[in-house]
Amino acid sequence: MTTQLSLPICATPGCQLVTEIPGTPCQDCVKAFGDMMRPGRPLTEAEITARDEAVHTAYRVARLRGVL
Prior knowledge:
Layout: H1 27-33, H2 45-64
């Protein structure tokens, strides 16, 4: 997958919305999840990519097999 723009993306798994600060959740996720979100240090782009790569691979395989 290629990125067209280098805008910071939400750190919440599955969310692809743009966020103001890299490595933090977007305002929609903050609003939706509220108190369920715990404070912590912002994730780097590399950490987000590494965390999500297995999920992206699983979705690719499922699509190739016709499951999705």
